[in-house]
């Protein structure tokens, strides 16, 4: 957890955002993130982000569910407590398909949502720095991280020339902390600073 | 990937000339405004029904389920009828959000949020019936497989009733996760524009600290797509498994192989009818006519006429098989206990036929599909009809079984069985009223996503493209996806 300096450029149209992202990257600035009010398709590619492997995780959770269901049921009904139901086979695979299927779906869905929340650091009472309150409304907010070499004024001018309607500089925490959205204090971060 | 251009021939999904900010304003307004008088009246009626239902359940636990008028022959009466009815209603939400997402049906964006909420509340109501039907409800945990000292004694994994336990609980969990993950960005929107401290705090908790980061959106899209892919077979499996409760038995009228598809079609049918009932009111009360347009209403009415007709074919097939099988028990059930209008429950069979098969045929006419009054009236009729269907299946198969000496006298419910049913209406509408007041009833982010493709004012600006020669159009880049336009680096 550390505070960093960012230059924030806000765009009011995704059509202006795409060329700007391209130019910023060509010039060599480091885009910290772009915050958008909805999923802008293709923006992840334009920013050079790699594909998410969340779906692969989902597949693994799914087969874990399948295996859990099949192994538990077959152990229970053939070994732990084999019930004789009219002389029918103990290993009654067709009758287990519904539960096996349901557990596959359940494991995959629950696992994926938890993984999603973990990767994106989303949870109740988690608070993050928001660069612009309208990033969840109608602004596309490009945040560029400043290094020791960055000339802030140049960068601000560069963003304005490329269609940003608002440009400012913010020093902000880039991680998350436990906090309330109606209060400004950052309990954990302050402790770290004091220590 | 979405096209930047959509034909003028397609009706806009969002009317008026709206900016992204207008969309936020329109949808968040009901949350920020004081609830209307009508809302309070509706809410209090719902709570009153809920309290009556709780009292009915209190009596059920105290005196046993005999107070419902159930007897040895008719062990399943209104309770299981209501269970299947509510589960069926709970199918439209996931169908709209999952199957229509996979089919890339743009119109789902206007109605998916409310439909998913409705699904969750309907499944909550459905779950009450099997639970309280257990009688000794404090033993309810016996349906779960867990290590114990009684044997070890396990649940029977070969039983359709246990499949139901897994199916319904999985369905509820997955629907809830799907719904809530979609709500996160919209809670973020409400949080960031909140004026009061309490609202900022509560929506801050509910939004999980959502920022709108591109990486998060990318994962969110992947999550939605996979959850939709998982929910599609899930939604089909749930009502299939509910139908197995009947189809795997040897009771005439239940023992049929067409039950799974027939139940699933019926579930979609009743679910869409319930979505119509709710959306016709919600769009009016909250002034959301620009987002839930007549086009949306019409699309859902088309689904109703399709599934209603599928159900109709299933009814006729059953009657045919009752005769063709030459099985006298089957024949008796279908041709005497059901199709004979003058048998004790003949009225319910013909009520079902009239409501589910005949009346939805009105939706072959475009004028009727786009008439709000007809839509609302029909949506109620369809749900009455679907309730009759479950009642017909359950009671008419049970009341005259193989042994005439055990034939039950005319079964009718007591006020406490009806009270329990009314109580679930109370639960459903209490939840729905709270949802409509405190949650964004329309998926804000998803509407913004389709706004510039299918919004009325944006489509008009693209009108000139309609006259462009196809080869010129293809080369101009308008038909290309955003990705190709922007170019990946």
Q: Overview of this structure, please?
A:
The complex is a heterodimer of chains A (195) and B (489). Chain A is of the alpha+beta class and 195 residues long. Chain A has 2 domains: 3-48 and 123-194, Alpha-Beta Plaits; 55-119, no CATH class. Chain A contains 6 helices and 6 strands; from the N terminus they run βαβαααββαββα. Chain A has helices at 14-27, 43-46, 54-80, 93-119, 152-161, 187-194; strands at residues 3-11, 30-35, 126-128, 140-145, 166-173, 176-178. In chain A, strands 2-4-1-5 form a 4-stranded antiparallel sheet, covered by helices on one side. The longest helix of chain A has 27 residues, at 54-80. The radius of gyration of chain A is 25 Å and the shape is elongated. In chain A, 35% of the residues are buried. The model of chain A is unreliable at 191-195 (pLDDT under 50). Chain B has 2 domains: 1-14 and 456-484, no CATH class; 20-145 and 155-454, Formate dehydrogenase/DMSO reductase domain (Formate dehydrogenase/DMSO reductase fold, Up-down Bundle). Chain B has 19 helices and no strands. In chain B, helix 5 crosses helix 6 (160-192). Chain B is globular, with a radius of gyration of 25 Å. Chain B starts with 19 loop residues before the first helix and ends with a helix. Chains A and B meet through helix 1, strand 2, helix 2, helix 3 and helix 4 of A and helix 1, helix 6, helix 7, helix 8 and helix 16 of B.
